[in-house]
């Protein structure tokens, strides 16, 4: 504002109030910014002004100051624009005012982001402390429950002993003095053990070392938590009284909104051997929640909750049904363990005895019966009994109840000299010959009494023998080992043009109770000597997890036909799956419609002419459990994949399909999908192969489709996956084979995974209504069908649909 304009406004005010110009407030307040030429004009005005005039002047000055402040940014902006126009065509990217406000917004955003991060860290630490408190509360409560139960058992035992002693005294009054004295001594001794010690915890309630709280500090604990003594050592009574109440931890208090609803009774205020119950406030709160129809913060109705003595959330007591279920599971586990050991012992015995294949639905018609044994639950045990009986030349096992009698009966027969057994077809019977019997001389054997060879397998023993050179075959190496009485195992170098390995027979000693170490090594073949002189302990068997998950190196792949398939199935012996596979073989259904197929089992069985199972090293026994309550069959199918790799037939095809015997699988429907997949995906990422996911919940086991490159990648990474998931789950993940393979190929092997939900229609994967009619021609497989009639109905329905659809 110019000095002239200011002078004119001041003059108008001075005319109305002459006395105002002489006041100090006017001279030093309003005219502070006036120029020197205006001083004379101001001094001429004399007089006094009323209070109202002064207020008007002050208000005018305030309005003037506000106007100047509001116009300042406009003048500044105009000045910047004027300077920008003066520059040679240069444009300011952003005005100073806009830059100022953008910086303010940026600061606010950064401050808000920092506050959110701090709040997230605080919440995470609080949740971690809460979980830690709950875990420790459960452990503390379990320790007290066990100790209290033990205390009650001791008291009951002492009472029973005293009662028995009193009865004995009544029956023998002449010995009352001596026996009564001894009884009182025993009772006093028992009472001395039962009486609580004057420690912070009684002797019976001292927590086990594994239940001690962790030593690292726990952030954000509530104030009613107390720090336990690091070691619970016996103390003197006066020391125990001094240390009865431990000092509380110095912790950061929680906000009022995050404090626990109820503070439970601290452990040091609870009588020894008792568990604190709910307070009156908790009871009232539970009643209120029950009336409202809900439960808040995990508090359950009274009677079903155990309130732990060391903070945290209440721990739910086990109901009677849960206790019965746990006891039932424990009994089932014991039975499973006993059965597993029995089957394992039998399989190892078969491995060293060169047992011949069992003939299904066949009876030995000729021969003289010498014995019949009831209660034999498998043909393998019947074959073992026949082998141990020197007079037995053939056996027949009745596998199911029929017109001839009950099931599980073993019949042994003796044949005439040089007579061949006469076999006839008969349903429900399994027949065969005895296994190899040891001879007195190591050289007295026939070729059929030699155990099988193990390709790509090396054996390690405690001591060895001199090696033999120039041995050109594995059979020759086995014969050389058999002729040496000290040789218990052998390994032959199959690889060509490898100095020190090719055509070398490594002979090794093996004690009667020694199990040879088993290692996968490409280019070698190993085995045991002929003559059945090895014991069951000498069997070549993968006993440890390292040996089970040690896969042979994959072979070089050939160039097969497009969409060529090798289909495999694992059969449980002596089950309904035998008849299912025989029917499928006759109908050319399931895996028998593929280019190549193979049936595996832990028993070598001739199911039908042209259909013989291949032996796999597994008991085929597993438990039910894990997060999803499924069969924990990883070990079973690991043995299957190892044998598939050893058999070496997968190099002839592009795809490997594993299908269960109760899966209605149509290879002709799968082939167009595989051809399209080969054109689209090729060999997948980095040439590691492709596999198909058949369910929205993840890979399911009834049918699994892998490219041969995916199987080769799986073989290379099998041991790595085993170690990875062991570390991830801190032990066994308790997964089935399908989930384990799916996770291994995704997380570790980096194999391309393609969702193809047309592969499977299954009851466990949310199928469409009427899925089991098998009328959906777009589906490749249907599962499960566990009886022959249902399987045939589905098979015929699907084939009729295919005829109409492809007509």
UniProtKB/TrEMBL annotation:
What InterPro entries does the record tag this protein with? Apple (IPR000177), Pan_app (IPR003609)
Enumerate the Gene Ontology biological process terms.
proteolysis
Q: What is this protein called?
A: Apple domain-containing protein
Matching entries from Pfam families are given as: PAN_1 (PF00024), PAN_4 (PF14295)
Record has Translocase as a keyword? no
Query: So which domain of life are we looking at?
Result: Eukaryota
User: What range(s) does the Apple domain occupy?
Assistant: 355-436
Region Disordered, residue ranges? 122-223
Task: List residues traversing the bilayer.
Answer: none
Locate the compositionally biased regions of type Low complexity: 156-171, 185-209
Return the GO cellular component terms, semicolon-separated: extracellular region
Keyword Disulfide bond in record: yes
Q: Which UniProt keywords apply?
A: Disulfide bond, Repeat
Basic and acidic residues compositional bias: what residue ranges?
124-151
């Amino acid at each position: 504002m110019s000095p002239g304009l200011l002078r004119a406004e001041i003059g108008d005010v001075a005319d109305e109030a002459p006395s105002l110009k002489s006041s100090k407030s006017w001279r030093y307040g309003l005219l502070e910014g006036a120029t020197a030429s205006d001083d004379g004009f101001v001094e001429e005005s004399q007089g006094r002004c009323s209070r109202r005039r002064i207020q008007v002047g002050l208000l005018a000055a305030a309005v003037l100051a506000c106007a100047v402040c509001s116009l300042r940014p406009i003048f500044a902006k105009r000045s910047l624009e004027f300077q920008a126009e003066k520059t040679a065509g240069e444009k300011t990217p952003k005005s100073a005012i806009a830059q100022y406000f953008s910086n303010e917004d940026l600061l606010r955003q950064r401050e808000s982001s920092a506050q959110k991060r701090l709040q997230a860290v605080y919440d995470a630490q609080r949740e971690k402390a809460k979980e830690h408190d709950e875990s420790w509360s459960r452990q503390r409560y379990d320790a007290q429950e066990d100790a209290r139960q033990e205390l009650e058992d001791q008291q009951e035992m002492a009472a029973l002993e005293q009662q028995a002693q009193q009865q004995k005294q009544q029956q023998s009054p002449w010995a009352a003095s001596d026996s009564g004295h001894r009884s009182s001594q025993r009772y006093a001794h028992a009472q001395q053990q039962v009486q609580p010690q004057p420690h912070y915890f009684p002797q019976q309630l001292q927590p086990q070392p594994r239940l001690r709280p962790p030593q690292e500090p726990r952030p954000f604990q509530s104030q009613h938590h107390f720090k336990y003594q690091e070691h619970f050592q016996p103390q003197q009574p006066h020391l125990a009284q001094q240390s009865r109440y431990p000092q509380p931890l110095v912790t950061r208090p929680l906000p009022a909104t995050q404090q626990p609803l109820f503070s439970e009774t601290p452990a040091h205020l609870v009588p020894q051997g008792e568990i604190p119950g709910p307070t009156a406030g908790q009871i009232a709160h539970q009643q209120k929640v029950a009336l409202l129809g809900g439960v808040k913060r995990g508090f359950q109705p009274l009677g079903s909750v155990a309130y732990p003595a060391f903070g945290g959330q209440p721990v739910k007591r086990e109901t009677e049904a849960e206790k019965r279920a746990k006891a039932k599971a424990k009994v089932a586990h014991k039975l499973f363990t006993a059965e597993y050991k029995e089957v394992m012992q039998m399989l190892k015995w078969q491995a060293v005895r060169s047992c011949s294949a069992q003939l299904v639905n066949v009876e030995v018609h000729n021969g003289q019966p010498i014995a019949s044994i009831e209660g034999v639950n498998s043909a393998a045990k019947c074959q073992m009994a026949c082998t141990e009986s020197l007079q037995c030349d053939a056996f027949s096992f009745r596998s199911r109840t029929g017109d001839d009698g009950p099931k599980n009966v073993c019949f042994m027969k003796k044949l005439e000299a040089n007579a061949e057994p006469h076999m006839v077809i008969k349903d429900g019977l399994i027949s065969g010959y005895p296994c190899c019997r040891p001879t007195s001389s190591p050289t007295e054997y026939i070729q059929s009494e030699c155990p099988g060879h193990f390709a790509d397998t090396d054996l390690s023993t405690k001591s060895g023998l001199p090696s033999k050179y120039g041995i050109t075959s594995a059979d020759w190496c086995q014969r050389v080992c058999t002729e040496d009485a000290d040789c218990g195992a052998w390994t032959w170098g199959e690889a060509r043009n490898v100095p020190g390995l090719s055509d070398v027979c490594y002979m090794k000693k093996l004690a009667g109770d020694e199990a040879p170490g088993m290692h996968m090594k490409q280019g070698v073949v190993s085995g045991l000597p002929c003559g059945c002189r090895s014991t069951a302990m000498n069997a070549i068997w993968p006993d440890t997890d390292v040996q089970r998950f040690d896969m042979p190196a994959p072979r070089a792949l050939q160039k097969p036909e497009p969409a060529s398939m090798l289909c495999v199935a694992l059969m449980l012996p002596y089950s309904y799956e035998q008849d299912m596979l025989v029917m499928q073989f006759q109908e050319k259904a399931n895996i028998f419609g593929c280019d190549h197929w193979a049936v595996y089992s832990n028993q070598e069985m001739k199911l039908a002419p042209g259909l013989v199972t291949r032996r796999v090293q597994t008991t085929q026994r597993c438990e039910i459990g894990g997060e999803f309550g499924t069969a924990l069959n990883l070990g079973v199918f690991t043995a299957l994949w190892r044998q598939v790799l050893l058999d070496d037939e997968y190099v002839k095809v592009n795809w490997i399909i594993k299908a269960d015997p109760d899966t209605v699988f149509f290879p002709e429907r799968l082939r167009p999908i595989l051809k399209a997949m080969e054109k689209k995906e090729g060999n997948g990422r980095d040439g590691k192969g492709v596999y198909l996911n058949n369910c929205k919940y993840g890979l399911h086991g009834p049918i699994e489709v892998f490219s041969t490159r995916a199987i080769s990648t799986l073989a290379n990474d099998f041991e790595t996956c085993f170690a990875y998931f062991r570390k991830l789950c801190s032990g066994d993940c308790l997964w089935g084979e399908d989930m384990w393979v799916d996770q291994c190929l995704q997380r570790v092997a980096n194999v391309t995974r393609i969702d193809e939900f047309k592969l499977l229609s299954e009851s466990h994967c949310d199928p469409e209504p009427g899925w089991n009619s098998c009328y959906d021609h777009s589906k490749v497989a249907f599962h499960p069908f566990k009886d022959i009639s249902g399987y045939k109905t589905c098979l015929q329905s699907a084939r009729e649909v295919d005829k109409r659809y492809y007509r």
